[in-house]
């Protein structure tokens, strides 16, 4: 169900979402805003005819079942879903909470293991980002990403392999090891940008703070963990989402992650430093476009953006939201998307051609990155195969 772009008067720098959305979309964003910020959802949008099954499906597609559930709880009893769907939604949210508890417990265990062996990992994304949510346990979680760095990378992998059950193919950035029932990604390289000049700046910034007191120390369920510096993290969360968007697509949860770190840490964050990093990484345009969605559809105050958008960015923000709405979490629900074929090399070719197509279609989000991304994807894939060949010799 695509959103319809509208024409804006020259003096406007904000969007009235009600002007160009279906009723389901108005209801969905009302629930999400309520769940994110703890406000009461607009009751005038709901009645006994509300299509709650469609709202549940939309929240599932965007990986926001816990957030939308919190918003739904602010409605009067008579406007909520019928019993069967309500109980189904409750059970799903309880499972989200349980999954978060499991990941949090495993984070404590893996940090303890690494620290006992003189390795200090840095927690990336995921459960660290969840700390910025009003209810961290209601953010749908995935795996555990840890930045180890090249020095202790092999040592950390060896420690996990002692109790692992399986392992995914290693790539140029990390290896993914299934440990105690969860996936843990040990990062030798935190991430990469495809544009050489942008990546140079990105890697220099990591080298500046890694292993120093510039890192943050926070607690997850009472256990102390290390996170990247705040200004870097705010830029990195946006960068990670923008790269996923170019590669395969993202869900609204990724935009919520960015909005939450900007809002929850608004008293601490140095927005000028975050803006500087985004500009150096070639992502100032992406920040503006994501900002359109964060402000006008999620309700983030515009003054909390690191780089304010302009009127000419609004239409592109609508275009970003259209793709998010149609494709859902990591583009998995895009009905136009072809299924990844079976077979290793056919799958690799599918990934390469899809990424190339998206970079051509959506390159305006991050022009320099879109130009370089397909080439670097091929280079990194070739490097992985070359290393595998060398290991066999």
List its traits.
alpha+beta; 393 residues; 54% helix; Beta Polymerase, domain 2; two-stranded antiparallel ribbon; disordered N terminus; Nucleotidyltransferase family protein; 8% strand; five-stranded mixed beta sheet; 7 strands; NTP_transf_5; 14 helices
The CATH architecture of the domain at 118-228 can be given as 2-Layer Sandwich
Q: Whole-number average pLDDT?
A: 89
The global form is: globular
Give the tally of β-strands.
Answer: 7
User: From the helix content, strand content and strand pairing, which structural class follows?
Assistant: alpha+beta
Rg calc: 21 Å
Distance between the termini: 53 Å
Pfam families: NTP_transf_5
InterPro entries: NTP_transf_5 (IPR039498)
Protein name: Nucleotidyltransferase family protein
How does this structure look, described?
The protein has 393 residues and is of the alpha+beta class. Among the domains are: 118-228, Beta Polymerase, domain 2 (2-Layer Sandwich); 229-337, no CATH class; 343-392. Helices cover 54% and strands 8% of the residues. It contains 14 helices and seven strands. The chain has a five-stranded mixed β-sheet with strand order 1-2-5-4-3. Residues 1-12 have low confidence and may be disordered. It comes from Bacteroides oleiciplenus YIT 12058. This is Nucleotidyltransferase family protein. InterPro entries: NTP_transf_5.
């Amino acid at each position: 169900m695509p959103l319809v772009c509208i024409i804006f008067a020259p003096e406007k720098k904000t969007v009235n979402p009600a002007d160009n959305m279906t009723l389901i979309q108005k209801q969905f964003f009302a629930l999400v805003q309520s769940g994110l910020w703890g406000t009461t959802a607009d009751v005038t949008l709901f009645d006994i005819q509300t299509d709650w099954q469609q709202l549940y499906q939309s929240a599932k597609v965007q990986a926001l079942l816990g957030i939308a559930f919190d918003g739904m709880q602010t409605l009067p009893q008579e406007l909520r879903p019928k019993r069967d769907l309500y109980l189904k939604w409750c059970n799903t949210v309880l499972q989200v909470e349980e999954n978060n508890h499991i990941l949090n417990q495993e984070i404590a265990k893996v940090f303890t293991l690494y620290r006992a062996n003189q390795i200090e990992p840095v927690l990336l994304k995921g459960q660290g980002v969840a700390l910025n949510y009003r209810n961290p346990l209601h953010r749908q979680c995935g795996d555990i990403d840890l930045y180890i760095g090249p020095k202790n990378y092999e040592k950390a992998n060896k420690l996990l392999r002692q109790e692992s059950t399986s392992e995914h193919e290693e790539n140029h950035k990390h290896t993914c090891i299934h440990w105690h029932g969860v996936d843990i990604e040990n990062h030798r390289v935190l991430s990469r940008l495809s544009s050489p000049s942008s990546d140079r700046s990105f890697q220099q910034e990591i080298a500046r703070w890694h292993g120093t007191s510039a890192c943050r120390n926070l607690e997850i369920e009472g256990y102390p963990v290390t996170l990247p510096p705040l200004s870097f993290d705010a830029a990195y969360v946006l960068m990670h989402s923008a790269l996923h968007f170019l590669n395969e697509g993202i869900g609204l949860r990724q935009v919520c992650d960015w909005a939450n770190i900007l809002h929850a840490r608004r008293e601490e964050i140095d927005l000028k430093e975050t803006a500087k990093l985004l500009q150096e990484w070639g992502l100032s345009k992406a920040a503006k476009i994501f900002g359109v969605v964060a402000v006008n559809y999620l309700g983030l105050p515009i003054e909390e953006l690191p780089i304010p958008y302009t009127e000419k960015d609004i239409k592109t923000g609508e275009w970003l939201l259209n793709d998010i709405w149609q494709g859902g979490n990591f583009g998995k629900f895009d009905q136009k998307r072809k299924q990844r074929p079976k077979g290793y090399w056919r799958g690799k070719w599918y990934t390469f051609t899809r990424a190339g197509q998206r970079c051509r279609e959506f390159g305006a989000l991050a022009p320099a990155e879109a130009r370089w991304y397909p080439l670097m994807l091929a280079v990194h894939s070739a490097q992985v195969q070359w290393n595998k060949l060398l290991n066999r010799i």
